[in-house]
Amino acid sequence: MTWTSSGQLLVFLGLLLAITKPLGCYMVRVFAGERTLLTRALAAVERAVYRLCAVKAEREQTWRTYTGCCLAFGLANFFLFYVLLRVQRFAPDLAFNTAVSFMSNTSWQAYAGETISAWTQMIGVTAQSFTSAAAGMAVAMAVIRGFARQGSARLGNFWVDVTRATLYVLLPLSLAAALVLCAMGVPQTLRGGAQAGTLEGARQTVALGPVASQEPIKLLSSDGGGFFNANSAHPFENPAPVVNLLEMLLVLAIPSAFTYTFGAGVGDRRQGWTLFAVMMLMFAFGSVIATVSEAHGNPVLHRLGLGGGNMEGKEVRFGTAGSALFSVVSTASSDGAVNSAHDSFTPLAGLVQLLNMKSGEVIFGGTGSGIFSMILMVLVAVFIAGLMVGRTPEYLGKRIAAKDIKMVMLALVVTAAANLLLSCAAFLIHFHEHGYWNPPGAPLANLGNAGPHGLSEILYANASAVGTNGSAFGGLNANTPWFNLTLGLEMLVGRFLVMVPTLALAGGLARKRRVPVTVGTMPTHGPMFALLLVGIIMIVTALTFFPALSLGPIAEHFLMQAGVVFR
């Protein structure tokens, strides 16, 4: 790595560390209903929302009621957005895919962002970004209460948590960031476009809209759906390197802060900092690999006398380092915003992106979903450690029983199965029905590349859907009935078949009493447990996905080094 790329990574990680505690502490106070700097301005609005929606804020819910409210909230958002898209003349399968995408906090876009109206962008896309993120934050707080409480059947009130997440966290941060982006040149207008003249004397329409207001929430919410099809590579969404740095911080701000919120919420901040250290270590390791790989470029081109880094699919204003770091931020966070074409990255950088998503949203992860996904892996780690020493596994004073592990494994196994089975199904259907040729309707007819990279495109699309990420290898045309329906199904699996078992787990833990710490209790903070947790995450991910990855980006890397290319 060069001094520039190393400095950029260190500055970014330093800034992320600096905002983690203040924002995390603020969220603790918000969800506890304590007074904050914004209480005087927003308390009346909060009470008005409860009255309008007939919410009894003081009435807490069991995990079943909390889960039912979460599912009903998602269904209502899906239905409203689906109707809006059908009015916009979206095909039924594309409308289904898009509505599920934003409702599930995935923001997979199988259409060009500029093709829908500014009002649809605001009423549909932007509103869904707020609601889906708030729902994820609410579930995260329910899980934290599950560990913090004893002998209780209640996890809080879903509607209160969603309201507070939106009013006190998402809206203020989005407003402040939007003002900064406007000052940096990002447009904010309801005009549909502007006429401009080219150097050749022709006239062209430049798309405009409420970009500055949509950009912050797409990043803060882990939604990632850009106003423009080029997303954060577009100069109107991401005009300069300093804006690029700000956008990366917005992506990881809330997922990172939730580690501190978790530690403070369970009464042991060391637990939160341990999870933060694990996330930071895995993130930094992936960033170094991706940055170095992109800086080295393609050896096939080097043999032709074309040296330098891999600038294909990247903006000159960001270079290989800024693009590689943004790609790791995007895939580690399940955000899906991109400032470069991931399809053009070197195989090792693409492998990092795939591993980030296939590890299960644990490297910071999504807004709210990242922390409870990491907690699932923590419980796997303490369970395995308990088996090794012959003790009942414990975490934060709660004994982890067989029922709890079943809920954990349900969330992990179902998502992995959907990821692999539907990746495989595209190939099985193609070869069974069509032999080795590609008719227009076959899934593989929509691949832009042959060989291992074509497999990587399929693996990436399915990993992005199950991981609620939303980015893609652009060589795959996913706007077909097969991909719109199957990827939509995977988004539902990746969102709700993780949330529901997690809430069931939280409900069971809240009823348990804490057991006293003894000399035999395994500490779940500090470097030793952090390294154990990193090892467990890597082993589980490798055992699940290594065969597929070895045929995709790993094989592509060695073939590239040998000079083998595919037409």
Structure overview:
- The protein has 567 residues and is mostly helical.
- It is 65% helix and 2% strand.
- It is built from 17 helices and 4 strands.
- Strands 1-2 form a two-stranded antiparallel ribbon. The protein has a two-stranded antiparallel sheet with strand order 3-4.
- Strand 3 and strand 4 form a beta hairpin.
- The two termini are 31 Å apart.
- Residues 432-440 have low confidence and may be disordered.
Secondary structure elements and pairings:
Blueprint: H1 3-31, H2 39-52, H3 63-87, H4 92-103, H5 118-148, H6 158-183, E1 193-197, E2 203-207, H7 211-220, H8 241-265, H9 269-296, H10 299-302, H11 319-333, H12 347-358, H13 369-389, E3 394-395, E4 398-399, H14 402-434, H15 451-466, H16 481-511, H17 527-561
Antiparallel strand pairs: 1-2, 3-4
Helix pairs in contact: 1-8, 1-9, 2-6, 3-4, 3-5, 3-16, 4-16, 5-6, 5-7, 5-13, 5-16, 6-7, 7-8, 8-9, 8-11, 9-11, 9-12, 9-17, 11-12, 12-15, 12-17, 13-14, 13-17, 14-15, 14-16, 15-16, 15-17
The mean pLDDT is 90
Class computed from helices, strands and strand pairing: mainly alpha
- Indicate the proportion of strand residues: under 5%
Number of strands: 4
Q: State the share of residues found in helices, binned by percent.
A: 55-70%
Helix segment tally: 17
Descriptors for this entry?
567 residues, mainly alpha, 4 strands, 65% helix, 2% strand
Brief summary of the model shown:
By secondary structure, the chain is mostly helical. 65% of the residues lie in helices and 2% in strands.
